[in-house]
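Task: fold both queries, return tokens.
Query 1:
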Amino acid sequence: MKNILSRILLLSVFVALSSSNVLADNIIIQSSTSLKNSGFYGYIAPILKHYTGVEIRVVAVGTGQAIKNMKNCDGDVLITHARNAELEFLKTGYGLERFEFMYNNWVIVGPRKAKMQKNFASLEIRDIMKIIYDRKEKFISRGDNSGTHMKELSLWKQLALVPEEFPKTWYLETGSGQGATLMIANELEAFTITDTATWYSFKNKEGSEIVGYDNKDLNTYAITTVNPEKCKNIKSSAVEKIVTFLKSDNGKNSISKFRLNNANAFFPI
């Protein structure tokens, strides 16, 4: 009887230790919304678990909010798509290293009839935005300090235009995520900025389509690791497994195989 009880006790200790190891390999990713909305995390999570043993939980918010959350140590790693904001995060001492691992394209979407009438096909995204401004076409901005919003503001800045001065008769801010912004743009027959993966995964396109690409600036996604001296509970070893995998051939192949509408959603770096 004592032998049986001893074996049960040893088994219980083993199970407890095993459980603690599993918990140690669960990480929280503070992330931009586009990777979740496109279905990328749902696709990559089981692959990461298979190759690294690490399970991921994702907090999907705008890039600006994701960075704020990481400054509060509310996660283990940051995955976003706003280079300047990420570099500023590194300067604060909270960020440790930044690794670019994949990209897709920025696009402007709008009413299908607009593309046909205005011959946007041959124009750069900046030229299209200048036409939108000159003609006061309806434009929907996320207005939420997300990576997409930061991209939009950078385009207006390149045109020496200030959105804060635009009248609300044609320039509207949703303060919401990309899905809601695309929905409103579609309903109002307006223009907005998004990325190719988000657009491919968006279901309610109706009369809207891509009317122009940014061929000069890629939409690059980066992993930014967090300084354990700032955030004591960061699971650095589990994060390193994720980073190492995404740098590997298996990681790059996995990124390449994620497709939406029979097209590559992202391309590995």
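Query 1 returned. Query 2:
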Amino acid sequence: MNFKSLLKALNQGLWVSASAKDCPDVADALGRCAELCHEINMLPPSKSDKRNRLLESLLGKVGERFIIHSPFRCDFGFNIRIGNNFVGNFNLAILDEADVEIGDNVMIGPNCSLVTITHALTVEQRNAGVMAARPIKVGNNVWIAANVVVLPGVEIGEGAVIGAGSVVTKSIPPHMLAVGNPCRPLRPVTDADRVEVF
């Protein structure tokens, strides 16, 4: 299977064999991405312009006004599309074997992972590189708090808030506060949640 066909199959959620033996382009793409992530993460904060140029070359799309703190890791990079006014805090990992779409005005706290990939459960298949992936979509105006894991196929609706430490296994409706492991909608976010600002 060629690399383009493999990526298409992964994005469709199909089970594939993606070992380096079956598709050497996978190892090349992972290596290129690892090198770029390493270079990005080694730059000092004073080199933000260079850092942002490297991120723009790594990722599929980046909107205006974005901040991604180091360290940052992803698998391919080109499957990640980020909207305007994005903040990704320290230690963000995005395993993008399938598409990851992040809307405008999204904040992701420290130590978060967005994971599109899963592996076969049986030892023989897992060791043979059998895997599947499903896209992740994060809507506009979402806040994902610290230490959250978002699993394959999840969609987080516009305006939702995901509480710290949550493991998001199923999609979350818009404008909901959702928490827990597994993450579940707790209640809507309403005007009653507005805080007094001094």
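Both queries returned. Flag for query 2: Residues 9 and 16 are 7 Å apart (CA to CA).
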